[in-house]
Amino acid sequence: MNCYEHTLITKQDLPESQSKKLIEKYENIIKKNSGKVIKTEEWGLRTLSHKIKNNKKGFYFHIKFEGIGKTIEELEKIENIDDKLVRFLTVRVKKHDPNINFFEKKEFERKWKEEETIKKREVQLIQN
């Protein structure tokens, strides 16, 4: 099976109870079509870079899963007709790292501090 990451953007006025049901619906579609859900993340309400279907904001959800071609076909077929979604994207990845959450503030700050430390060391080496 291949590894995939799937990101959904729902309308901003969708109630939380409906958004939870929507994510469960798509997780069940993945499972019914020979897939295995690894991790689901809720990234929250974010401003879109431009208006999409008269929406300025949207709730982001990210699903990491394993599946086959049929899994993707069925998932995207149903998403194409779902009026609660603004956009969706499926990307094939080499492997999953369930410990990384790209939108967790602590993870971002830790990586930023590591990069700054590396840059300072490089500057010191060049100066010496």
In short:
The protein is of the alpha+beta class and 128 residues long. The chain contains three helices and four strands, in the order E-H-E-E-H-E-H.
Description:
The chain has 128 residues and is of the alpha+beta class. Strands 2-3-1-4 form a 4-stranded antiparallel β-sheet, covered by helices on one side. Helix 1 (16-32) runs antiparallel to helix 2 (69-80). It has 2 domains: 2-97, Alpha-Beta Plaits; 99-128. It has helices at 16-32, 69-80, 105-127; strands spanning 2-11, 36-52, 55-67, 85-93.
Q: What's the topology here?
A:
Elements: E1 2-11, H1 16-32, E2 36-52, E3 55-67, H2 69-80, E4 85-93, H3 105-127
Helix pairs in contact: 1-2
Compressed to H and E, one letter per element, the order equals EHEEHEH
CATH topology-level name of the largest domain:
Alpha-Beta Plaits
What would you call the shape?
Answer: globular
Strand order of the largest sheet: 2-3-1-4
Total count of domains? 2
Give the low-pLDDT segments: none
C-alpha Rg (nearest Å): 18 Å
End-to-end gap: 51 Å
The second-level CATH architecture of the largest domain is: 2-Layer Sandwich
What is the strand content?
35-45%
Helix content: 40-55%
CATH superfamily of the largest domain: Ribosomal protein S6/Translation elongation factor EF1B
CATH class assignment of the largest domain? Alpha Beta
Q: Treating each run of at least 4 consecutive H or I residues as one helix, how many helices? A: 3
- Structural class call reads alpha+beta
